[in-house]
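Hi team, as promised in this morning's meeting, here are the two structures we talked about. I've kept the exact order from the run log so nobody has to guess. The first one is mostly here for context; it's the second one we should focus on when we meet again. Sequence first, then the predicted C-alpha coordinates.
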Amino acid sequence: MPPTDMGEALLPDLIALFAVLASASPPETVPLTPPLTPPVEPWQVRYAGGFRRYGRPALGVWTAETVGCPACGGKTGPWTVTCDWRLISLGCPCGVVTHEHGLAFSEVWLLLPDT
Protein backbone atom coordinates (compact mmCIF):
# COMPACT_ATOMS: atom_id res chain seq x y z
CA MET A 1 0.00 0.00 0.00
CA PRO A 2 1.20 3.55 -0.61
CA PRO A 3 2.00 5.44 2.61
CA THR A 4 -1.10 7.66 2.37
CA ASP A 5 -3.41 4.63 2.09
CA MET A 6 -1.67 2.98 5.04
CA GLY A 7 -2.07 6.16 7.12
CA GLU A 8 -5.73 6.49 6.20
CA ALA A 9 -6.31 2.88 7.21
CA LEU A 10 -5.01 3.73 10.71
CA LEU A 11 -7.24 6.79 11.16
CA PRO A 12 -10.35 5.07 12.60
CA ASP A 13 -8.30 3.34 15.29
CA LEU A 14 -6.34 6.52 16.07
CA ILE A 15 -9.52 8.58 16.33
CA ALA A 16 -10.96 6.05 18.79
CA LEU A 17 -7.73 6.02 20.81
CA PHE A 18 -7.54 9.81 21.09
CA ALA A 19 -11.24 10.01 21.95
CA VAL A 20 -10.65 7.65 24.89
CA LEU A 21 -7.57 9.59 26.00
CA ALA A 22 -9.44 12.90 25.87
CA SER A 23 -12.52 11.61 27.70
CA ALA A 24 -13.02 11.75 31.45
CA SER A 25 -11.59 8.90 33.48
CA PRO A 26 -13.92 5.90 33.92
CA PRO A 27 -15.71 5.91 37.30
CA GLU A 28 -13.78 2.89 38.58
CA THR A 29 -10.39 4.60 38.19
CA VAL A 30 -8.69 6.76 40.78
CA PRO A 31 -6.65 9.83 39.80
CA LEU A 32 -2.94 9.67 40.53
CA THR A 33 -1.84 11.50 43.64
CA PRO A 34 0.45 13.29 44.14
CA PRO A 35 0.56 15.11 40.80
CA LEU A 36 2.88 13.68 38.16
CA THR A 37 5.05 16.81 38.21
CA PRO A 38 6.48 17.82 41.58
CA PRO A 39 6.03 21.43 42.66
CA VAL A 40 9.10 23.60 42.14
CA GLU A 41 10.00 26.91 43.65
CA PRO A 42 9.78 29.94 41.37
CA TRP A 43 12.97 31.91 40.85
CA GLN A 44 13.72 35.55 40.25
CA VAL A 45 16.85 37.19 38.92
CA ARG A 46 17.92 40.63 37.66
CA TYR A 47 19.25 40.88 34.11
CA ALA A 48 20.76 44.02 32.60
CA GLY A 49 20.71 43.76 28.85
CA GLY A 50 18.39 43.14 25.98
CA PHE A 51 16.20 40.19 25.16
CA ARG A 52 15.77 39.19 21.53
CA ARG A 53 12.61 37.56 20.23
CA TYR A 54 13.19 35.32 17.23
CA GLY A 55 10.64 34.25 14.66
CA ARG A 56 10.45 32.23 11.50
CA PRO A 57 7.67 33.63 9.33
CA ALA A 58 8.59 31.46 6.34
CA LEU A 59 10.86 28.59 5.44
CA GLY A 60 14.44 29.87 5.42
CA VAL A 61 13.41 33.30 6.78
CA TRP A 62 14.31 34.30 10.34
CA THR A 63 13.50 37.54 12.14
CA ALA A 64 14.92 39.02 15.33
CA GLU A 65 13.48 41.84 17.39
CA THR A 66 14.61 43.35 20.69
CA VAL A 67 11.92 43.06 23.35
CA GLY A 68 10.84 46.37 24.83
CA CYS A 69 8.71 47.45 27.76
CA PRO A 70 5.11 48.00 26.60
CA ALA A 71 4.83 51.15 28.75
CA CYS A 72 8.11 53.07 28.41
CA GLY A 73 9.75 51.30 25.46
CA GLY A 74 12.89 50.48 27.46
CA LYS A 75 14.93 47.64 25.99
CA THR A 76 18.00 47.19 28.17
CA GLY A 77 16.60 46.71 31.66
CA PRO A 78 17.73 45.94 34.19
CA TRP A 79 14.87 43.48 33.96
CA THR A 80 13.51 41.58 36.93
CA VAL A 81 12.88 38.15 35.45
CA THR A 82 10.49 35.92 37.37
CA CYS A 83 9.82 32.33 36.37
CA ASP A 84 7.49 29.82 38.01
CA TRP A 85 8.37 27.19 35.36
CA ARG A 86 5.09 27.85 33.53
CA LEU A 87 5.17 31.60 33.00
CA ILE A 88 7.98 34.10 32.53
CA SER A 89 7.44 37.70 33.65
CA LEU A 90 9.66 40.63 32.75
CA GLY A 91 9.64 43.55 35.19
CA CYS A 92 10.87 46.89 33.83
CA PRO A 93 12.56 49.55 36.01
CA CYS A 94 9.54 51.79 35.27
CA GLY A 95 7.42 49.38 37.34
CA VAL A 96 5.51 47.60 34.56
CA VAL A 97 5.48 43.79 34.64
CA THR A 98 4.63 42.02 31.41
CA HIS A 99 3.96 38.47 30.31
CA GLU A 100 3.33 39.57 26.71
CA HIS A 101 6.97 39.52 25.59
CA GLY A 102 6.77 36.54 23.23
CA LEU A 103 9.94 34.96 24.60
CA ALA A 104 10.26 31.21 24.86
CA PHE A 105 11.49 29.69 28.11
CA SER A 106 14.66 28.48 26.37
CA GLU A 107 15.45 31.99 25.08
CA VAL A 108 15.28 33.50 28.56
CA TRP A 109 17.10 30.60 30.19
CA LEU A 110 20.10 30.90 27.88
CA LEU A 111 20.56 34.60 28.65
CA LEU A 112 20.38 34.33 32.41
CA PRO A 113 23.23 33.59 34.80
CA ASP A 114 23.12 30.31 36.72
CA THR A 115 20.50 30.42 39.43
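And here is the second protein, the one for discussion:
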Amino acid sequence: MIKAVVFDFAGTLFGRPTYRWLSPQHLAVLRAPAPYIARMNAAERAVWAARDLTALANRSAHWTLFRLAGVPLTDEVFQRLHNPAFWLPYSDTAAALARVRPLKVGVLSNISWDIRPVFARESLSVDAFSLSYEIGFSKPSARAFEAACARLDVEPSECLHVGDDPVSDGAAVEAGLRFAHISTAPVGRREPVLLEALAGHGIT
Protein backbone atom coordinates (compact mmCIF):
# COMPACT_ATOMS: atom_id res chain seq x y z
CA MET A 1 0.00 0.00 0.00
CA ILE A 2 1.30 3.44 -0.92
CA LYS A 3 1.50 5.72 2.11
CA ALA A 4 3.64 8.52 0.66
CA VAL A 5 4.56 10.15 -2.63
CA VAL A 6 7.95 11.78 -3.14
CA PHE A 7 8.33 14.16 -6.06
CA ASP A 8 11.40 15.38 -7.88
CA PHE A 9 11.67 19.18 -8.08
CA ALA A 10 13.16 20.47 -11.35
CA GLY A 11 11.33 19.28 -14.43
CA THR A 12 8.66 17.59 -12.32
CA LEU A 13 6.96 20.07 -9.99
CA PHE A 14 8.73 23.25 -11.07
CA GLY A 15 10.46 24.27 -14.25
CA ARG A 16 11.81 27.06 -16.37
CA PRO A 17 9.35 29.31 -18.17
CA THR A 18 9.15 29.60 -21.93
CA TYR A 19 10.51 33.15 -21.98
CA ARG A 20 14.25 33.53 -22.27
CA TRP A 21 15.53 33.97 -18.75
CA LEU A 22 18.77 32.43 -20.02
CA SER A 23 20.35 32.85 -23.43
CA PRO A 24 19.89 30.06 -26.00
CA GLN A 25 23.62 29.29 -25.64
CA HIS A 26 23.37 28.81 -21.87
CA LEU A 27 20.24 26.69 -22.18
CA ALA A 28 21.87 24.52 -24.84
CA VAL A 29 24.80 23.75 -22.52
CA LEU A 30 22.51 22.95 -19.58
CA ARG A 31 20.31 20.69 -21.68
CA ALA A 32 23.21 18.78 -23.25
CA PRO A 33 26.28 18.97 -20.99
CA ALA A 34 27.70 15.54 -21.86
CA PRO A 35 30.25 16.68 -24.51
CA TYR A 36 31.77 19.17 -22.08
CA ILE A 37 31.73 16.79 -19.12
CA ALA A 38 33.68 14.35 -21.29
CA ARG A 39 36.42 16.98 -21.66
CA MET A 40 36.79 17.51 -17.90
CA ASN A 41 39.87 16.14 -16.17
CA ALA A 42 39.50 13.72 -13.26
CA ALA A 43 39.41 16.44 -10.60
CA GLU A 44 36.87 18.51 -12.51
CA ARG A 45 34.68 15.47 -13.11
CA ALA A 46 34.74 14.67 -9.40
CA VAL A 47 33.54 18.19 -8.62
CA TRP A 48 30.83 17.85 -11.27
CA ALA A 49 29.64 14.59 -9.69
CA ALA A 50 29.40 16.36 -6.32
CA ARG A 51 27.87 19.58 -7.66
CA ASP A 52 24.60 19.16 -5.77
CA LEU A 53 26.20 18.50 -2.40
CA THR A 54 27.59 21.97 -1.67
CA ALA A 55 27.11 25.47 -2.99
CA LEU A 56 30.87 25.77 -3.61
CA ALA A 57 30.98 22.58 -5.68
CA ASN A 58 27.95 23.72 -7.65
CA ARG A 59 29.54 27.03 -8.55
CA SER A 60 32.88 25.46 -9.46
CA ALA A 61 31.24 22.73 -11.54
CA HIS A 62 29.16 25.17 -13.58
CA TRP A 63 32.07 27.53 -14.15
CA THR A 64 34.07 24.60 -15.51
CA LEU A 65 31.18 23.40 -17.66
CA PHE A 66 30.61 26.74 -19.34
CA ARG A 67 34.33 27.44 -19.69
CA LEU A 68 34.73 24.22 -21.64
CA ALA A 69 31.67 25.10 -23.72
CA GLY A 70 33.15 28.51 -24.55
CA VAL A 71 30.11 30.31 -23.13
CA PRO A 72 30.72 33.05 -20.55
CA LEU A 73 29.02 32.55 -17.18
CA THR A 74 28.58 35.76 -15.21
CA ASP A 75 27.57 35.90 -11.55
CA GLU A 76 24.19 37.29 -12.60
CA VAL A 77 23.49 34.37 -14.92
CA PHE A 78 24.67 31.83 -12.35
CA GLN A 79 22.43 33.30 -9.67
CA ARG A 80 19.40 32.94 -11.91
CA LEU A 81 19.78 29.19 -11.63
CA HIS A 82 19.30 29.52 -7.85
CA ASN A 83 16.77 32.35 -7.75
CA PRO A 84 13.21 31.28 -6.75
CA ALA A 85 11.80 33.97 -9.04
CA PHE A 86 13.04 32.04 -12.07
CA TRP A 87 11.34 28.77 -11.08
CA LEU A 88 7.62 28.40 -11.69
CA PRO A 89 5.18 25.56 -10.93
CA TYR A 90 3.76 23.51 -13.76
CA SER A 91 0.04 23.93 -14.43
CA ASP A 92 -0.77 20.62 -12.73
CA THR A 93 1.57 20.89 -9.72
CA ALA A 94 -0.95 22.24 -7.20
CA ALA A 95 -3.60 19.75 -8.30
CA ALA A 96 -1.17 16.84 -8.05
CA LEU A 97 -0.03 17.74 -4.55
CA ALA A 98 -3.66 18.09 -3.48
CA ARG A 99 -4.55 14.77 -5.11
CA VAL A 100 -1.99 12.92 -3.00
CA ARG A 101 -3.59 13.94 0.29
CA PRO A 102 -4.19 12.51 2.82
CA LEU A 103 -1.03 10.53 1.98
CA LYS A 104 2.30 12.04 2.98
CA VAL A 105 4.08 14.30 0.48
CA GLY A 106 7.82 14.67 0.10
CA VAL A 107 10.29 16.31 -2.27
CA LEU A 108 13.64 14.71 -3.11
CA SER A 109 15.91 16.91 -5.18
CA ASN A 110 19.50 16.98 -6.37
CA ILE A 111 20.09 20.63 -5.61
CA SER A 112 22.55 22.91 -3.85
CA TRP A 113 20.15 25.60 -2.59
CA ASP A 114 17.04 25.80 -0.43
CA ILE A 115 13.89 25.43 -2.56
CA ARG A 116 11.45 25.75 0.34
CA PRO A 117 10.78 29.47 -0.38
CA VAL A 118 9.60 28.47 -3.88
CA PHE A 119 6.92 26.25 -2.38
CA ALA A 120 6.01 28.82 0.28
CA ARG A 121 5.55 31.47 -2.42
CA GLU A 122 3.02 29.23 -4.17
CA SER A 123 1.35 28.11 -0.89
CA LEU A 124 2.18 24.47 -1.65
CA SER A 125 2.32 22.13 1.33
CA VAL A 126 5.06 19.49 1.62
CA ASP A 127 5.63 17.28 4.66
CA ALA A 128 9.37 16.76 4.22
CA PHE A 129 12.12 18.04 1.93
CA SER A 130 15.17 15.87 1.22
CA LEU A 131 17.67 18.11 -0.53
CA SER A 132 20.99 16.63 -1.60
CA TYR A 133 23.09 19.42 -0.11
CA GLU A 134 21.42 18.80 3.27
CA ILE A 135 21.26 14.99 3.34
CA GLY A 136 24.72 14.47 1.83
CA PHE A 137 23.58 12.17 -0.95
CA SER A 138 22.19 12.71 -4.43
CA LYS A 139 20.15 10.53 -6.76
CA PRO A 140 20.72 7.90 -8.08
CA SER A 141 22.24 6.83 -4.75
CA ALA A 142 19.89 4.52 -2.87
CA ARG A 143 20.79 6.44 0.29
CA ALA A 144 19.08 9.55 -1.10
CA PHE A 145 15.81 7.65 -1.51
CA GLU A 146 16.22 6.01 1.88
CA ALA A 147 16.66 9.44 3.46
CA ALA A 148 13.48 10.71 1.80
CA CYS A 149 11.51 7.73 3.10
CA ALA A 150 12.96 8.09 6.59
CA ARG A 151 11.93 11.74 6.75
CA LEU A 152 8.38 10.71 5.91
CA ASP A 153 8.51 7.75 8.32
CA VAL A 154 7.56 5.19 5.66
CA GLU A 155 9.22 2.11 4.24
CA PRO A 156 10.55 2.32 0.66
CA SER A 157 7.94 -0.25 -0.41
CA GLU A 158 5.24 2.15 0.81
CA CYS A 159 6.50 5.08 -1.25
CA LEU A 160 6.01 6.23 -4.84
CA HIS A 161 8.64 8.44 -6.45
CA VAL A 162 7.62 10.71 -9.34
CA GLY A 163 10.30 12.20 -11.57
CA ASP A 164 11.36 13.07 -15.10
CA ASP A 165 14.85 11.56 -15.20
CA PRO A 166 14.84 7.84 -16.03
CA VAL A 167 18.35 7.43 -14.61
CA SER A 168 18.55 9.43 -11.39
CA ASP A 169 14.83 9.24 -10.56
CA GLY A 170 14.45 5.76 -12.01
CA ALA A 171 16.96 4.45 -9.48
CA ALA A 172 14.08 4.62 -6.99
CA VAL A 173 13.14 1.12 -8.09
CA GLU A 174 16.53 -0.29 -7.03
CA ALA A 175 16.02 1.39 -3.66
CA GLY A 176 12.71 -0.42 -3.21
CA LEU A 177 10.31 2.38 -4.12
CA ARG A 178 7.72 2.44 -6.87
CA PHE A 179 8.48 4.81 -9.72
CA ALA A 180 6.37 6.92 -12.07
CA HIS A 181 8.31 8.40 -14.97
CA ILE A 182 6.87 11.57 -16.52
CA SER A 183 7.77 13.58 -19.60
CA THR A 184 8.90 17.15 -19.16
CA ALA A 185 9.15 20.48 -20.99
CA PRO A 186 9.40 24.18 -20.13
CA VAL A 187 6.61 25.65 -18.00
CA GLY A 188 3.76 26.62 -20.30
CA ARG A 189 4.51 23.87 -22.79
CA ARG A 190 4.27 20.64 -20.80
CA GLU A 191 1.08 18.61 -20.85
CA PRO A 192 -0.60 17.97 -17.43
CA VAL A 193 1.15 14.64 -16.85
CA LEU A 194 1.27 14.48 -13.05
CA LEU A 195 -2.32 13.45 -12.37
CA GLU A 196 -2.07 10.72 -15.00
CA ALA A 197 1.10 9.42 -13.36
CA LEU A 198 -0.58 9.30 -9.96
CA ALA A 199 -3.66 7.59 -11.39
CA GLY A 200 -1.41 4.93 -12.87
CA HIS A 201 -0.56 3.95 -9.31
CA GLY A 202 -4.10 4.08 -8.01
CA ILE A 203 -3.97 7.61 -6.56
CA THR A 204 -7.18 9.21 -7.82
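Starting points for discussion:
The chain is about 35% helix and 15% strand.
The mean pLDDT is 94.
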